[in-house]
From TrEMBL:
Bilayer topology annotation: Multi-pass membrane protein
GO annotation, cellular component aspect: early endosome; external side of plasma membrane
Record protein name field: G-protein coupled receptors family 1 profile domain-containing protein
Subcellular compartments: Cell membrane; Early endosome
Length: 366
């Protein structure tokens, strides 16, 4: 009886192939559950962390870059290459910043509700702003290099004409579009367990590795190399000048290089580690959690660089700063009218003190 029961149960068992399939589906289901549990704590953290920081970066960066655009449009009648590059740099930062509220909302509710077209559009804004900001920083660096190092070279002076600068800007935007096109074309909306998601779906591991390495090369290696080369040639020439502002110019150059290195290097290192992760290295749950957490931090640090661009490239100059205060006084006379008066009084006092000290020193010498 006991044997017959065993025989009956054995005869009713599925064959070995179906058993293997059942076990495979069981293990794949178990892996999916482990993966969800591994990422659940990171997702809960990112729902609060990322929207908050994205909102702060958006507000601060939008105000600064919008002011740069307004000043350049309103007060600069004859634009040179530097002003045109600064305008396009601020425009690229604004394109990038416009995409952040959509990503903040997507992260907060963990679902994409804006449709397929907006998924492509927001990805396009994100990528065009990302590469545009870096490319125009490179162009501004090369422009400064040609002005200072090759000031007497007629070949380099010709490119600063209006027509040549327009061609150069259009070429930079075309290069920007070409670098951004793969991620824009691969972005798509899909239904993942009754939740709509928007993301870049690469057709294979090769395309994903190519995209990340492209960001490493175009986003860090090339711009940092250009900045180090150009500014290493500019600084010795500035130090030979007798101008009192040469030390301030050298400090500004050091700030440009150091800030770019500190803000973008961690982001590119994590991108490279994500490539290794997708290639099969660092596959443990702890590594996946650490990479996800590190990505959130370094992304926010890198994205906040667009908030510093107006300060570094525009607001440092006294003339540009005075134009910003002038336009703020026109728009908000109650808030900034008194501020501009105090700043002008302080500058007048400082100039009068400087003139008095120079007169005293001249009298002593005489």
């Amino acid at each position: 009886m006991e044997y017959s029961n065993n025989t009956t149960s054995l005869s009713n068992m599925p064959n070995s192939n179906s058993t293997t399939d059942d076990y495979a589906s069981y293990y794949s289901l178990e892996e999916d559950n482990d993966k969800q549990q591994c990422n659940s704590s990171i997702k809960n953290f990112s729902r609060v962390f990322l929207p908050t920081l994205y909102s702060i970066v958006f507000i601060v960066g939008f105000i600064g870059n919008a002011l740069v655009l307004c000043v350049l449009v309103k007060y600069h009648k004859r634009s040179n290459v530097t002003d045109v590059c600064l305008f396009n740099l601020a425009l690229s930062d604004l394109l990038f910043l416009i995409s952040l509220p959509f990503w903040a909302h997507y992260t907060a509710i963990a679902e994409w509700i804006f449709g397929s077209f907006m998924c492509h559009a927001v990805t396009a804004l994100y990528m065009l702003g990302f590469y545009g900001s870096i490319f125009f920083m490179i162009l501004m660096t090369i422009d400064r290099y040609t002005i200072i190092v090759h000031a007497h070279n007629s070949l380099f002076s010709k490119y600063r004409s209006v027509r040549a600068s327009i061609v150069l800007i259009l070429f930079t935007w075309a290069l920007n579009l070409g670098a951004s096109l793969p991620n824009i074309s691969f972005s798509q909306v899909k239904n993942d367990t009754n939740v709509w998601t928007c993301g870049v779906e690469y057709p294979g591991i090769a395309w994903m590795s190519f995209s990340y390495i492209e960001m490493n090369v175009l986003g860090l290696i090339i711009p940092l190399s250009v900045m180090v080369f150009c500014y290493s040639r500019i600084v010795p020439i500035l130090m030979t000048m007798k101008s009192q502002k040469k030390h301030k110019a050298v400090r500004l150059i050091l700030v440009l290089v150091i800030v770019f290195f500190l803000f973008w290097t961690p982001y590119n290192i994590v991108l490279f580690m994500k490539v290794l992760h997708h290639l099969g290295y660092m596959q443990s749950c702890r590594w996946e959690q650490d990479l996800s957490m590190a990505t959130q931090w370094v992304e926010t640090i890198a994205f906040s660089h667009c908030c510093l661009n107006p300060i570094i490239y525009a607001f440092v100059g006294q003339k540009f700063r005075n134009l910003v205060l002038k336009i703020l006084k026109e728009w908000f006379p109650l808030c900034f009218g008194r501020c501009t008066t105090i700043v002008s009084d302080f500058s007048e006092r400082r100039s009068s003190m400087f003139s008095r000290s120079s007169e005293i020193s001249t009298t002593k010498i005489v």
